[in-house]
Amino acid sequence: MSRSIKQKDLKILFGRAAGRCAFPTCRVELVASKTEFDSAQVIANVAHIVAHSDDGPRADPTYPRAQRSAYDNLVLLCPTHHDLVDAQDNTYTVETLRAWKSAHEKWVDEQLREAVPRVSFAELEVVTRAIADTVPEPDPDLNLLAVREKLTRNDLSSSIHALVALGLVKAREVEGYVEHAAQIDDTFPDRLKAGFTNEYAVLTASGLHGDRLFRALHVFASRGRVAFNEQAAGLAVLTYLFEKCDVFEK
Question: What is the pTM of this model?
Answer without folding.
Answer: 0.77
